[in-house]
Sequence to fold (100 residues):
Amino acid sequence: MPISAPSLGDEEDSRDPRFQDDDLYESESLAFPGLTPVQAEAVLKRLGAGVVEKLALVEGIGWQARIESVQGGVEIHFRAHDELIDDLLRRCEQQAEREA
Fold:
């Protein structure tokens, strides 16, 4: 998942070093009690994500998020470029507060 190059999901991705360097990415999870998967997907779309798998996985430039239903809400698992993760988490929390 590179910062500025699209993944076409084909064999070229496996040879492109921008899709291989896991050292540049961090993972983090946030819990949002009271938020539904539909609301979580809407929040992530407002942050610039495109839907890969309806109500489960979205991707933005340099990041992706998996939505997991949990008791009483959702948990969002982020994987993002190390330069994006802090801002992405902050903006997601802000948007989720507005959505709830």
In short: The domain at 26-99 is CATH 3.30.1370.80 (Ribosomal Protein S8; Chain: A, domain 1).
